[in-house]
Amino acid sequence: MEIHNYAVNDINLCVHQTGPEHGRPVWLLHGFPECWHSWRYQAPALAAAGYRVHVPEMRGYGRSDAPRDPAAYDLLTLCGDIRAAMDHLGQREAAVVGHDWGAPVAWHTALLEPERVKAVAAMSVPFGGRPKASPLSYMRKLFENRFHYILYFQRPGVAEAELEADIRRSLRLIFHNWSGAVPGGSFLREKPADARLLDGAAEPDGWPTWMSETDFEEYVKTFEGHGFHGALNWYRNFDRNWELTAPLDGRRIEQPALFLVGDKDPVRLLEAKTLERMPTLVPKVEQHVLQDCGHWTQVEQAEAVNTHLLGFLRRHYPA
Question: Which of the residues 108, 295, 308, 316 is marked catalytic?
Answer without folding.
Answer: 295
